[in-house]
């Protein structure tokens, strides 16, 4: 079976400073799935360059393989910290380890976690109608069960 650590090393050799590796998965039939992303958006040419580099670096005569290189997709769950950084200023859905679902805008993403701004309507003392309450929550990455971008077509 192809060594996924070797594939990761090969991919990282072709990443520029705006690109990042999301995941490398190699199954028992040697199907290699590489997911990369970029803060500026990923182009087909970038995927082709990575694919060619990996393909030419591995020896098909020793071990045959199938290779696929792509971005994770808009609806995919975040897997690496860089994805949170990419989505600063954008709307996301976060599910905490306590199964609390939050929707909000990522205000910042650090090495430790994110700051999420959420808006809810709550009944406040002295008001007859629910008022919009904006809160900022600090979440560490180890407190997040899953997160993904919310795509709005408005």
Which properties best describe this structure?
154 residues, GMP Synthetase, Chain A, domain 3, SH3 type barrels, five-stranded antiparallel β-sheet, three-stranded mixed β-sheet, 3 helices, 8 strands
User: Which range best describes the helical content: under 10%, 10-25%, 25-40%, 40-55%, 55-70% or over 70%?
Assistant: 10-25%
Uncertain residue ranges: none
| Tally of individual helices | 3
Average pLDDT = 95
Q: Whole-number radius of gyration?
A: 20 Å
CATH architecture of the largest domain: Roll
Oligomer: single chain
What would the principal axes of the Cα set say about the shape? elongated
The CATH class of the largest domain is identified as: Mainly Beta
Number of strands: 8
Quickly count the domains.
Answer: 2
Q: What is the H/E order?
A: HEEHEHEEEEE
Fold and architecture overview:
This protein folds into two domains: 4-70, RimP-like superfamily, N-terminal (GMP Synthetase, Chain A, domain 3, 2-Layer Sandwich); 81-149, SH3 type barrels (Roll). The chain has 154 residues and is α+β, with helices and mostly antiparallel strands. The termini are far apart. The chain has helices spanning 4-14, 44-57, 81-86, and strands at 19-26, 31-38, 66-70, 91-96, 101-109, 113-122, 131-140, 144-149. Strands 7-6-5-4-8 form a five-stranded antiparallel sheet. The protein has a three-stranded mixed sheet with strand order 1-2-3. The model has no long low-confidence stretch (mean pLDDT 95). It has three helices and eight strands; from the N terminus they run H-E-E-H-E-H-E-E-E-E-E.
């Amino acid at each position: 079976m192809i060594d996924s650590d070797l594939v990761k090393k090969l991919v990282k050799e072709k990443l520029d400073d705006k690109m990042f590796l999301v995941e490398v998965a190699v199954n028992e039939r040697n199907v290699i799935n590489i997911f990369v992303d970029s803060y500026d958006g990923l182009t087909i040419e970038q995927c082709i360059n990575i694919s060619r580099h990996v393909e030419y670096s591995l020896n098909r005569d020793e071990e045959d393989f199938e290779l696929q290189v792509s971005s994770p997709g808009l609806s995919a769950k975040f897997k690496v910290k860089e994805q949170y950084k990419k989505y600063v200023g954008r709307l996301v859905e976060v599910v905490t380890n306590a199964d609390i679902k939050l929707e909000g805008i990522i205000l910042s993403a650090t090495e430790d976690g994110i700051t999420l701004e959420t808006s809810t309507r709550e009944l406040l003392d002295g008001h007859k109608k629910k008022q919009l309450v904006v809160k900022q929550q600090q979440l560490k990455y180890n407190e997040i069960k899953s997160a993904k971008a919310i795509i709005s077509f408005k």
